[in-house]
């Protein structure tokens, strides 16, 4: 299955605005919970657990020690402000006042809170969708994948235990996240199943409409000398015509290091690749005739065309497999896109969030404002369909021995992924 499709369903977080302010919550959420997805509660205990885990992981990324970690504490952020006041500042940087520090603490809280809530909600979306489709992840599948990934990132058990102590997560949490990744792969496979049938007629039609894509232009192999001054180009031309080997002449006179290092050879040139004046001279030149100097903005060229490969059209037989794979990919992409759009709408419609915990995935979230101003690069942002929200897909995990994160073997039919370095929050209870 094409990797791009796995990436689509291996779920990037829905692009969203900042956490919605208190006062927009629903009335159907129990007092001990932050949200409900269908009949399933997401409890404040779960939220607090994963909020703190995210705080610890962000602190690790900035080099803070575990005993230095202080979670943003709304509404006054007293502890957060006090912790920031003790942090050393670069020489010459003025010490920020309490108001500025409070703003920093609030910004950190809003970001981490939204990330946590989005994950907890979308984890339920995935779990409930898998159950609806009777898709399961066996304990054996999950444990096999987990052990593979653990071994890759933590060759030493002591390093893994240290990670658990500092990350705010338990092994149960990480195993659950692996389970979500297995379910993700299986869900994706079920969506694209049967969407890869492409007829010969469809391949023929695509080829007829896109022949230019399969045309190979004429190419010319050259020997060149590019001299900064005309006098040097004249000397190079004289030496070549007197029988001096081209490589020797290029080494002495050429200022173009790329062709100079290849003995003056410049192979596979197509129209439009070179400077306009030089390009015209190349493709009007006779084979094996020494020409120049040709004046360009880069200097003076002396050159010879040594080989001409005529343009040719690839036949349908030559490109049939390429076209078939492309059309299969398009069909699978459409199936995934259609699923994403429908899934997000259905899942959002059954998600209600409590006051102060509202994010864009909640049914009771304010409707996003349509931005009609053109974005940089052109077209206006008009709320195009987004990717499926991220759930428990493994991210990178700090490697055990201080090395870089390594890729791990696929689990349950998935492509190789990386073990979580900063695991995104996952539900730890009912």
Question: What characteristics describe this protein?
Answer:
430 residues; 13 helices; alpha+beta; 11 strands; four-stranded antiparallel beta sheet; Chitinase A, domain 3; extended; three-stranded antiparallel beta sheet; disordered C terminus
The tally of strands reads: 11
What assembly state would you assign to the polypeptide chains in this entry?
A: single chain
Flag low-confidence runs. 1-26, 372-390, 392-430
End-to-end Cα distance: 33 Å
Percentage of residues in DSSP E strands: 5-15%
Structural class assignment? alpha+beta
Helix content: 40-55%
Radius of gyration over alpha carbons?
A: 31 Å
Q: Which of globular, elongated, flat, extended, rod-shaped describes the shape?
A: extended
What can be said about the biggest beta sheet?
Answer: 4 strands, antiparallel
Topology as H/E string? Answer: HEEHHHHHHHEEHHHEHEEEHEEE
* pLDDT averaged over residues: 80
Number of domains: 2
* Cross-sheet strand order for the largest sheet: 5-4-7-6
> What's the number of helices?
13
């Amino acid at each position: 299955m094409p990797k791009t499709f796995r990436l689509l369903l291996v779920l990037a977080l829905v692009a969203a605005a900042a956490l919605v302010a208190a006062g927009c919550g629903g009335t159907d959420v129990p007092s001990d919970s932050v949200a409900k997805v269908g009949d399933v509660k997401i409890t404040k205990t779960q939220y607090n657990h994963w909020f703190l885990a995210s705080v610890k992981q962000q602190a690790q990324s900035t080099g803070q020690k575990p005993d230095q970690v202080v979670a943003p504490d709304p509404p006054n952020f007293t502890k957060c402000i006090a912790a920031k006041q003790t942090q050393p500042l670069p020489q010459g940087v003025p010490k920020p006042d309490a108001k500025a520090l409070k703003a920093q603490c609030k910004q950190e809280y809003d970001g981490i809170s939204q990330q946590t809530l989005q994950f907890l909600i979308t984890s339920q979306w995935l779990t409930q969708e898998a159950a609806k489709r009777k898709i399961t992840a066996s304990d054996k599948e999950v444990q096999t994948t987990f052990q593979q990934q653990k071994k890759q990132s933590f060759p030493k058990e002591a390093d893994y235990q240290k990670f658990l102590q500092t990350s705010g997560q338990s092994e149960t949490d990480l195993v659950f996240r692996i389970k979500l990744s297995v379910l993700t792969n299986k869900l994706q496979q079920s969506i694209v199943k049967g969407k890869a049938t492409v007829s010969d007629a469809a391949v023929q039609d695509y080829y007829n409409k896109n022949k230019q894509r399969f045309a190979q232009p004429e190419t010319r192999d050259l020997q060149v000398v590019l001299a900064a001054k005309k006098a040097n180009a004249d000397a190079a031309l004289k030496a070549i015509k007197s029988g001096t080997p081209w490589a020797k002449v290029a080494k002495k006179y050429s200022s173009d290091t790329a062709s100079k290092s290849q003995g003056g050879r410049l192979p596979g040139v197509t129209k439009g690749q070179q400077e306009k004046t030089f390009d015209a001279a190349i493709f009007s030149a006779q084979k094996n005739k020494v020409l120049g100097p040709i004046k360009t903005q880069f200097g003076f060229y002396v050159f010879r065309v040594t080989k001409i490969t005529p343009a040719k059209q690839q036949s349908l037989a030559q490109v049939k497999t390429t076209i078939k794979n492309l059309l299969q990919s398009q069909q699978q992409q459409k199936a995934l896109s259609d699923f994403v759009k429908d899934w997000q709408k259905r899942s959002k419609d059954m998600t209600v969030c409590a006051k102060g915990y509202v994010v864009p995935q909640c049914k009771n979230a304010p409707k996003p404002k349509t931005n009609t101003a053109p974005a940089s690069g052109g077209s206006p942002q008009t709320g195009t369909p987004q990717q499926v929200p991220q759930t428990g897909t493994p991210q990178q995990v700090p490697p055990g021995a201080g090395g870089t994160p390594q890729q791990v073997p696929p689990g349950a039919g998935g492509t190789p992924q990386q073990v979580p370095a900063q695991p995104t929050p996952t539900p730890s209870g009912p």
